[in-house]
From TrEMBL:
It comes from the Eukaryota. Belongs to the peptidase M28 family. GO terms for biological process: proteolysis. Residues 138-331 form the Peptidase M28 domain. Its cofactor is Zn(2+). This is Peptide hydrolase. InterPro entries: Fxna-like_M28_dom (IPR048024), M28_fam (IPR045175), Peptidase_M28 (IPR007484).
Amino acid sequence: MSLLSPKWGLGRSLLTLGPILLVAPLIALKQHYTLPEPQTAPINTRTGLPQISEARILGFAKHLSEEIGYRTVGTYEHALADAWMVEQAEEAKRQCERVVRESGRRLECEVWRQQGSGTHRFDMMSKRLYKSYQNLTNIIVRLSDGTDEGKTHALLLNSHLDSTLPSPGAADDAVSVGIMLDCIRVLVDTPDWSPAHAVIFLFNHAEESLQDGSHLFSTQHPIAHTVRAVINLEAAGTTGRELLFQATSEEMVEAYSHVPRPFGTIFANDIFNSGVLLSDTDFRQFEEYLDVPGLDIAIVGNSYLYHMRKDLVENIEAGVAQNMGENTLALIKHLTAPGSAIPTLSSNTNAARMHMVYFGLLSHFFMYRFATAKALYGAMLAGALVLTRAQWTGQARGVLAVLGGIGGALMVPNIVALVTVHGLGRGMSWFAGGHFAAIGLYGPAALLGGLASQLLVPATDEKTVYAATLLLQSSAALGIQLLNVGSAAMFFISGLPIFIALLVNDLLLTTRKGEVSLWVYALGQFLPLMTGTLIMVPTVEVFVPLTGRMGAVPADHIVGTLVAVLGAQALPLVIPFAHRFGARALRRVVLVLGALTVVNMGIYARREVFDAMHQKRLFVLHLENATTHEHHLHIANADGAPGFDALVRDITTEFAGLQAAAVPVVMDDYNSDWDSLYPFSAFLSPYKIALPLDPAYVSPWTAPETSFSLKAVNEVTDLVAGTRSFTLQVRHPGLIWTVIAFDAHVLAWNLDDNPPTEYARHHVKEASFYKADMWTMDLVVKLPPGADGEIAFNFIGLQEGAMWPAKKAVKAQGGPAMILFEALDGWLDEKTGGTVDALLLGCVAGTAVV
Ligand SMILES: *[C@@H]1O[C@H](CO)[C@@H](O)[C@H](O)[C@H]1NC(C)=O
Ligand SMILES: [Zn+2]
């Protein structure tokens, strides 16, 4: 083909470029979705050496999540999991001792069952919050070479055994528990393996109650001070490669680069640290109380099932556990080997000192320091300036075209969102279809906006716009990196091929000044499209399900904007390309895309938001007020999809009678009905329905010996100092996860040394081992002038025996709450065609003046 004029027309150009450019996202998708072959055998038949066995890992996960079941902290099942874990650890230790007896290897396995109580402050979502826990447990296994030196510096592996309120927790986090157990087996059975530095496996038994288990280990375990680095294994999904989403030291990233299939980017790290994902892991406790760096790794694909009933082994994609297991094993081997960085990882290494860019691309894992990044991006900008000097004069127009393109790409998806939500009343129509559905709706819209905008900006020639694209990408890379944000790499990765393509164009391809060869688009767009896909797909994959639990946010605008921004970043050369064929051709393309977008909106408007595997989350409380003796049903959702009010009306008529009314209630710090979920409750938009009372009902929660009670002991009132000090005793037989909320000016308490120096509202949440049914709190409060200092406490707790479906098997224990839940759950299933997952909790609450 002639590389010069006459230029090919639009159709011929697209037909040539299309197939080439289609390969880029395909390569990216293949990399993103490929998982290793799951192994069943514990020993590799070819090498005769032990290997990670997915079958064994999933066997553990299945036992925990199905045979034992919902392991909510404080329940009977939670105690069963504790006993099971002790047995597994002891068995591992016996195997270890057998191996050592037979081989004389330098290997020692030790086991602890830690049990203890404590308190910690746990602020989240900008709320001040305190935790108090009684007799919670952790199971700990340490592998070392048996020497004191070998135990001086240790690597910590953490996963959690417990599951959250409405979930059997197979992926979250039983798979990680299984992986740690299988890693122990492989290491112990590997001939000659002996760790130069110890590895501590923490099977932590209270994460979902807000990280009490990791707090207990970090603050009280005798070997906690030997920990130099941590690897935390988590899950918020059930598919795909596990993601490294937090890394807080360069040495640990270096270690990670040796795993067989790394999947971690500085980009994920920056998103997580921005807090928009609203999630938090045990990593926080290790950072805060052990002051060590580490890696936070989680399964994140398909997070629709996260904290849902369907977080079951059958829904975990084949290969997920194999992949995570092999990566984890490689990390342990690397970090416990002689010469590892473990002993050099001193305390106070933290995120603020992590100055490293990292990302995986095809089979290579790139890593470089911020200083290198600045030099590199600076050099690219300088090179770009030199290369584009012929286009400097018209640059104002070029820049205007590119910025106009970005503006248009952002605007049209938001118009689409506005029309679907407010015009058609069909918001979140992409939800059940997942990230590809979201990209399918907003991608063409963004492209339409980007191209249509070019009809409005002043006419400019192609090469000037190309130069503007390069200059803006390079400036963004350098500018953002100068702010020490490692995600600037995104602009470097897309800028560099654009730069190289221009260089090739000017030196080799064209002879006429100002000409852009068609090949430049193949060359310059391939890598941005590939890396853009590698960033866009997982990001949208995480955000789409997140909109189902973020509360009544403008989900369509969030997702539309996200697709537009990441799409623009993946297709930067669309804008110069738009100026290649003249306004007439561009108008035709815009027309076609416009029609496509309108048709698309029509198709999406017919889609159902939720389906059986992409369910709506419903939060239902049956609340017995022990003070007023009323019973209420509280219902809330955590998404902005249409149809919630109608569903609540139907539930009300069905379960509270035709006369009953669902009253919308305000969610704030004084809404104590939802304190069990505080501060997540801020996402909920609840209704309250009064339930008719069965005259034959005798409450078990008001009898003196079984009641939920608050009382003050060791009371001292000092009128001269104006203070009252006492120990608040909270008794809660049969109830778990108790919460108290009260207003007072606290001068001192045992929760921390730093209560607010004013009259304020406080929330204290408890979580304890099964049957540990009392906790206390020491308080010194300031007496208000002329008052006796009595305090009104709002209290609430969950009935250990009234959580549906966790306690289905023993439903008779649950009283009226469970009777209602069984009926309501069956009715909901039928009414909504299985598209709703309801968290159904029996609560007892009241007010006590102490
Ligand atoms: C915690 O365990 C100890 C020892 O088993 C027991 O004496 C104590 O009563 C328990 N605490 C609670 C609150 O149940
Ligand atoms: Zn978890």
